[in-house]
Specification:
Layout: E1 2-5, E2 11-15, E3 18-22, E4 44-46, H1 52-55, H2 58-65, E5 68-72, H3 73-80, E6 87-90, E7 95-98, E8 101-107, E9 124-129, E10 134-137, H4 150-153, E11 158-162, H5 171-181, E12 185-189, H6 201-210, E13 214-216, E14 223-225
Parallel strand pairs: 3-4, 4-5, 5-6, 10-11, 11-12, 12-13
Antiparallel strand pairs: 1-2, 1-14, 2-3, 7-8, 8-9, 9-10
Pfam families: Lactamase_B_2
Protein name: UPF0173 metal-dependent hydrolase H8S84_04370
Family: Belongs to the UPF0173 family.
């Protein structure tokens, strides 16, 4: 499974022949100035919630690639009004089987408003179960006991979790969340993009080390295999 990081909370997963993109915020992210949005290919775009720093480039990428947007009903309806015909609406607790695997929408504790002020429905995370591996994309969230339900249904290989604090969990809560989900490998996200969420990389790595977890902090544009 190939994973490419495009900054903030945006990751592209290459799963078999499918390219699955999460929360694209690239063109207005100064840290991602070296990434050309028009070069990104995606078959599916999964949106955790409606905030601009998670959806800004979804419309452009979807129209460029005829992608399917998978998100809360309110978000897919909003994109439908923008002329995007390929959408799959969901809500927390539901799941869908797509060509690359099964996607379950799970709870996240956060707000969700689309860029024009339209309510974005519930904030969410996703558990994605593929023939290769299963992973948890937490979205923007606080630490919540709901995370303990995930390993009761899934054998999760790794998780993507916010660590920037202020708007989401910090690294300390993320390590507790990793224990709740029963994973040893965490890919950090939602950090450094804005002054409010700047992190000390050495400090967060030390917290992860003390928790006996592997914390992966990718550089923007970097691709890894997991």
């Amino acid at each position: 499974m190939r994973i490419t990081y495009y900054g903030q909370s945006c990751f592209l997963f290459e799963i078999g022949e499918n390219r699955v993109l999460f929360d694209p915020f690239i063109s207005h992210n100064e840290l991602a100035s070296g990434i050309n949005v028009d070069d990104i290919k995606a078959d599916y775009i999964l949106l955790s919630h409606g905030h601009q720093d998670h959806v800004h480039d979804a419309e452009q990428i979807a129209k460029n690639n005829n992608s399917t947007i998978v998100a809360a009903f309110e978000i897919t309806s909003w994109y439908g009004e923008k002329g995007i015909e390929k959408v799959h609406p969901m809500n927390v607790g539901g799941k869908v089987t797509l060509p690359f695997g099964t996607v379950k929408m799970v709870n996240a504790i956060h707000s969700s408003t689309l860029p024009d002020g339209t309510p974005g429905g519930p904030a969410a995370g996703f558990v994605v179960e593929t023939p290769d591996k299963t992973f948890y994309y937490a979205g923007d969230t606080a630490l919540t006991y709901d995370m303990k339900l995930i390993p009761e249904q899934f054998d999760v290989d790794f998780a993507l979790m916010p660590i920037g604090d202020n708007f989401t969990m910090d690294i300390h809560d993320a390590m507790i969340a990793a224990d709740f989900v029963q994973v040893d490998t965490v890919i950090g996200m939602h950090y450094d993009t804005f002054p409010y969420i700047k992190i000390d990389r050495e400090e967060v790595q030390e917290v992860a080390r003390m928790a006996d977890k592997e914390l992966i902090l990718l550089e923007i544009g970097q691709t890894i295999n997991l």
